[in-house]
Specification:
single chain, 256 residues, alpha/beta, TIM Barrel, 8-stranded parallel β-sheet, globular, binds nickel (II) ion
Amino acid sequence: MELFDSHAHYNDEKFDEDRDEIIKEIYKSGVTKIVNAGYSLESSQKAIEIAKNYDFMYTTAGISPNDIEDFKQEDLDKIENIAKNQKVVAIGEIGLDYHWNTENKSIQKDVFISQIKIANKLNLPIVIHTRDAIYDTLDILKNKMQCKQKGVFHCCPLNKDLVREGLKLGFNISLAGPITFKNSKYADEIINMIPLDRLLIETDSPYLSPEPLRGKRNDSRNVKYIAQKIAEIKDITLEEVAKSTYSNTKKIFQIN
Ligand code: NI
């Protein structure tokens, strides 16, 4: 059985001590593809430098809504250039976050929209980060910007409106550790709402360790806990979840 971790951050400093060692262990454990996600100019570039060492690792390039403090217009050209690297399979993570930042909503929206334009220009899908900003995010995707290649709601918030509307708009849904948390409301209902052919799994490492490892540094080996939870709720085998999510992720990111 092979698993695809559709979103992790091996560009994070929490892996500085043992990055290569852990990535090799992950591969041996059966997680044979990984998307190493960028969230700023620096982290997008670093993601590529790391991924160059591993055939099975791909990256995203983008500026997240939590990394726009020093945003300059020319950063968009820089992201576009970084995204031309052959390791880059999507523009992301991009989006809106009103949990951490409420005072710069209009800049967040501008930067999100501008990066969707880059994705369309380069014919890439987008990886969306949305937190406490569901309706503004949907408004942009529905009414303001057409995404040519669609994309993924990464670590999708467990909100039924978002999942329903996101699916309707043609996006895929990627589920992470929170579906395993005991206090997660709606997790089971949401898992059942998502057709198997639109579903991706991820760890968002080093963050969001699933049960039973909450609080520890996360890594891609734990993506199996996400797959297990989905198998249990959908009443199918773990192998079926692994196989579908693997091929869905390859398809959306145009990986052969
Ligand atoms: Ni992330």
